Amino acid sequence: MRNEFRNLRLKQLDRRLGPFRTAAKTPRPPRGWLRAIREAAGISASEVARTLKTSRQLPLQLEKAEAEDRITLKSLKAAANALGCELVYALVPRTNSLQHLVEERARSQAKRQVLGVEHSMALENQAVGRVNEAVETETKRLLRKRGLR
Questions:
Q1: Residue 29, burial from CB neighbour count under 10 angstroms (0-12, 13-18, 19+)
Q2: b/e per residue, 77-101, with b = 16+ CB within 10 A?
Q3: Would you say 105 and 74 are in contact if contact means Cβ atoms under 8 Å apart?
């Protein structure tokens, strides 16, 4: 039952991530979203500062921090709120789906294990060969163990 629940959760999460896959392909503006939205909406840094109840410099510092990938989520959310926006946050697998991500990770782990054993066997002049077949078998075993096959 636990494995069925895990599979169901994986599929549900994959469906929920669907809309974010397109967004993940959208490049961030060179100077960051905060600055792009603020300028496009015609909002001054002073207005953002008033909304945040802080100095005029902070919004500019937040914009710079976002553009340099060093802003915190808390700060980004506060700045988004000050601009009348929602912060949308998701982790989107680079692969087609979460299922594919899990399978690739299992295959990678299986390959490391099989190649390690194969190397040891070769040192003892007992190498079996058929490494690809062994990797696929080990991958299937790992996926079954995780309840994903």
A1: middle
A2: ebbbebbeeeeeeeeebeeebbbee
A3: no
Q: How far apart are CA 28 and CA 82, in angstroms?
A: 19
Tell me if residue 46 falls in helix, strand or coil: helix
Assess contact for 20 and 65: CB atoms under 8 A. Answer: no
The pTM score is 0.70
Q: Give the separation between CA 143 and CA 66, rounded to whole angstroms.
A: 38
Domain extents in the chain: 2-82, 98-145
Rounded to an integer, the average pLDDT of 80-97 is 92
Residues 98 and 13 sit within 8 Å (Cβ to Cβ): yes
Q: Is the pLDDT of residue 124 over 60?
A: no
Residue matched to tokens 């974010």: 20
Q: Are 139 and 110 in contact (CB under 8 A)?
A: yes
